[in-house]
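Q: Is it fine to ask for two folds in a single conversation?
A: Yes, each is treated on its own. Send the first.
Q: Here.
A: Result:
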Amino acid sequence: MAFDLPSNIKAYGNPDDLAKDQDVDLVVCCTRVDLHYETIKPSLQQGKNVFVEWPLASNLSQALELTTLAKQTGAKTMIGLQGQASPIVNKVKSMIEQGVLGKVLSSSITGIGGVRSRDSISPGLKYFTERSVGGNVVTIGFGHMIDYVNFVLGEFTSFSSHLTIQRPKIAVIHDGKVEETVKTDVPDLIMLHGTLSSGIPLSASFRSGQPFKDDPGLVWNINGLAGEIKVQGSGPALQARDDDVKIWLHNFATDEVDEVKWESPFPELPGAARNVASLYEAFARGDEGGFPSFEDAVLRHRQIEELYASSEEGRRGVYV
């Protein structure tokens, strides 16, 4: 297939050829999740710096292998958990650090989204119904959401989870017509509660599909002795879409509720690109605290493994 690329664009026939090119400084992997491992491994073996979209790999075992390999070859890594760069997430984090809530007492978050329909999916996302692939509403939709919550409030010391498949059959729809109906082994409802390292109790839930008509798809509350923060928007994907998201602060002393303004550092870019741009900027500056690495990805992969284990085995999940 010919793509009529300009002469200054170089194409490669396979990941090994790309990895061997000495003129390549940074390799970016944006393939389907189950191709991440084989796509990026040759570049890590050559010690190249890499950026991989989240999830890092299809499973924890592959993620650990890639992370170990990067350490061995000295490759610098970045993972696409760009919710950590969200101006909304960082505004909330700074408010808490500045003490506007006083002592933080608890937090709850409800997210509804991941896919655009409750009971159907496009052919391109059919793999979302196959847990073994590694890319689905649990790892991607819920994974991004819980990552920015933990980034702000801290990791769980332990948690209990309940995962269920409410709609086991999903219609694959193209151009308005059902091509086939497939059985899914991926949960579409995730509920967990536990205690964070700071002692704060956190309750989180995520449901695939659309919210109640005209209701927000994201409601995140953080309650403190002196006030409460509420983040609300059409969906939980703050890593990619935030134009309609608002932050409110309820001051208990005055009983006033004020909207807290926030600004994107890259307003000229499409919403999905802004937080990724912040990661690239931090990576280019060498600000290793300004972007998540493969080590952060492994932590989140461990959490998701324990999410399933807690639900399936009826025990507390521990991943840190």
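Q: Second one now.
A: Result:
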Amino acid sequence: MERDDPAVNSDDSEIDETYVPEARRLRNPLQVRLRTSSQKSQQELTVFRNSTWSLRANVFEERLENGRRYAGESYFMPNDESEQTRLSIAHQTYLNLLDGELTMARLPTELKRVLDIGTGPGDWAIAIGERHTNAEVIATDINGIQPTSVPPNVFFQMDDAQEIWTYTRPFDFIHIRGLKGAFSQWSSVYSESFRHLRPGGTLEVVDLGMPEVSAHLASPNLDRFNRACLSAADKAGCSLGLDHLQRESVEAAGLNVLRSTILKVPLGTWIPDPEKKSAGKMALIAALEGLEAMSLRLLTRELAWKADDVRDLCSKVKDEIMRPEARASMPCQFVVARKLFTTPEAM
């Protein structure tokens, strides 16, 4: 995991002084000239720079498959503009679901350090940074798709949370949302979270289940879609289930689960509550756009489906979900856990 030191100090290389701080927060790779003394020559490398001034040698290479863009080979979700838009809509859905709040956790008044894992386009990290201007917010992702203009206390890093984390100072709050299927070993993510939380610090993990419709209504395409995606994910070693949110999974790392809450997110405007209709509209858009995003790489790679067949099934699933009588929804589970004060300091 990338360090959080804001400067890069090395005996072998240094940043060219022509680099301008205003360009620190980047959406695209920046050409940075490195002076490598060991080679006695100048070498130009394409690297991702961010507001922490960190450099990575192993920049994630983007791949184009079946008309979608992905970060490398391992993660099944795309990172293209369509997916970024979908994630931003999903963020607004969460805000509506939580009545404008960013978390179910009770945060300290003097929040100092926040870590957002899998930040995507950075909506949540930017929002928490705007609300807690004195807090340092570090947001990581394997994708360099974050905006260039962000609050001065928000810092983006390209990192894989499955690696060992090397942060030198603990966090008050660690936030992980929408990453089901991202990790083959959630136990290591929870262990690193425990190790990098201060005593009394809080972890929140949030994930959505698979789409559902009324039990009395036949939905053969949705059933087929869910079965195929779950099977393909299991084959790939990245479960799409919510087992990682079970109390025993979280507490095995030494954390103490304070609450586990499952909310029913309506897809559409069928819910009577007028305040929830807006959330239902946004959730429906995010869910429909998410069908192809979630399934295309999984089914073509793991189950050898043709891309056209995946898209055809997604179209049929959309029709089933949008039936007025379907009353479609998705379960959303929030787990809030704490590192107890009695736990010996791990950092």
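Q: Anything structural to flag on that second result?
A: Two points. Confidence is low (pLDDT under 50) at residues 5-59, 343-347. Residues 274-302 form the longest helix (29 residues).
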